[in-house]
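Quick question, first post here. What does this chain look like in 3D?
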Amino acid sequence: MRAALKTVDQVTAGEALAVDFAGSELLLDPAGVAYFPAERMLVVSDMHLEKGSSFACRRVYLPPYDTAATLARLSAMTAKYDPTTIISLGDSFHDDEASARLGEDAIAAIGAVARGREMIWVTGNHDPSPPDGVPGQSVEMLATGRIVFRHIPEPAETGHEICGHLHPCARLVRRGKAVRRACFASDGARLVMPSFGVFTGGLNVRDEAYAGLFDASRFRAYMLGQNRVYPVGAGDLRSD
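> Answer (accepted):
Ran it through. Tokens below.
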């Protein structure tokens, strides 16, 4: 929810952290996207568009602004990096019918983001079917170069993988004060993306759901600050 209150200036002003991933420079942006400069490829995950309307269908009423706010953030990231390819790593929509509930403004916003670019929708557990009425192609997974892009981490993957699904966050305690932030989670071979949607929560990287996904000796949680990304080693992280 806090992300929905950020202005476009705040979203675009952050300084990305450059890391090596599969032999390529990868920029981890404090807004929660990843960008490969050489390939001009932007990666985003777990937008959960139309989550508010999905809850409303069950008579749970949330402020109906999540889709507009999330797409405004995506538009800002597109303007910042000017990618030729955008990969959305699944759960782009909160349920399998969510794309059909998009309003005209949302469809226009997606169209503006995708115009002149390759837009790839990786299917997720929330949205296993291709979206309706939006530009781009839908795939179950994507292998390009040395990297496999999929929604749910595959523990058996032996190469390099970028995925989403788990909404990673990290908790750090310093001088008696605790900070809990969304994060990128990586050991250099696998990168789990933070969720990008403004109505999404997070799962602590010390949760058992992450067991077996990372080499602990090389693991880093790249915590999202307002203007920077902060790498934190496994030994400094705390459970909730």
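Confidence is low (pLDDT under 50) at residues 1-7.
Residues 2-238 form one domain.
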